[in-house]
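Structure (tokenized):
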């Protein structure tokens, strides 16, 4: 399975969420035009997210693999964007949970690759 579509889906979902938070944030005192541009960017990113997710589902042997890859990249990229744009902090507890998510992702993807090599 090619996972680049699932990765792109997760990244576009995170960027779309960041645009949504930007346009609804009380810290940003922006004009109506800037808010509308943020909303349009959010809609565009979410559209790309869904488009790449459907492509990932078409390439995947299992919808579970595409869903987990997309979700984990969305989760991790959202944390990075939150730190860079909104100065959000994450705890060691959060990062340890994220590590378990990544370990599970590797196990599931490797299991899927082993099954496709056998068939």
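Design, position by position:
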């Amino acid at each position: 399975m090619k996972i680049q579509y699932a990765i792109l889906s997760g990244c576009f979902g995170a960027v779309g969420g960041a645009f949504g938070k930007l346009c609804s944030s009380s810290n940003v005192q922006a004009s109506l035009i800037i808010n509308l541009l943020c909303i349009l960017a959010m809609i565009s990113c979410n559209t790309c997210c869904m488009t790449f997710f459907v492509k990932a589902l078409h390439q995947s042997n299992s919808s579970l693999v595409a869903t987990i890859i997309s979700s984990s990249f969305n989760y991790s990229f959202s944390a990075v964007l939150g730190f860079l744009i909104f100065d959000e902090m994450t705890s060691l507890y959060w990062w340890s949970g994220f590590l378990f998510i990544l370990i599970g992702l590797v196990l599931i993807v490797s299991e899927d690759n082993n099954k496709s090599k056998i068939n």
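Reviewer-requested clarification: The two ends are 14 Å apart (CA to CA). The CA atoms of residues 67 and 95 lie 21 Å apart.
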